[in-house]
């Protein structure tokens, strides 16, 4: 997406997960490619909980949710 003057206007892409399935801080997760080859082993430093109303308000329409 771009503004009328051509400036890039990116939106974050967030992937949500069931909170019960989120890894805990200190656990390791594995990153693999489409062939299931190991790319990396990552240790979780932080877990962020997602709120769809806040995300929508911040990314799409700050004034849309002002009356809630």
Q: In words, what does this structure look like?
A:
The protein has 68 residues and is an alpha+beta fold. Helices cover 12% and strands 16% of the residues. The chain has one helix and two strands. Strands 1-2 form a two-stranded antiparallel ribbon. The model has no long low-confidence stretch (mean pLDDT 80).
Write the layout of secondary structure elements.
Layout: E1 28-32, E2 38-43, H1 52-59
Antiparallel strand pairs: 1-2
User: Strand content of the residues, in percent?
Assistant: 15-25%
Q: In DSSP terms, counting alpha (H) and pi (I) runs of 4 or more, how many helices?
A: 1
Distance between the termini: 28 Å
Number of strands: 2
As a percent range, the share of helical residues equals 10-25%
Summarize the model shown.
This protein has 68 residues and is α+β, with helices and mostly antiparallel strands.
List keywords for this structure.
68 residues, alpha+beta, two-stranded antiparallel ribbon, 12% helix
């Amino acid at each position: 997406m771009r503004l009328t003057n051509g400036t890039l206007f990116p939106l974050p892409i967030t992937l949500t997960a069931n909170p019960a399935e989120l890894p805990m801080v200190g656990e390791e997760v594995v990153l693999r490619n489409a062939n299931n080859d190991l790319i990396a082993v990552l240790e979780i430093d932080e877990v962020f909980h997602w709120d769809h109303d806040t995300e929508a308000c911040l990314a799409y329409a700050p004034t849309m949710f002002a009356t809630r």
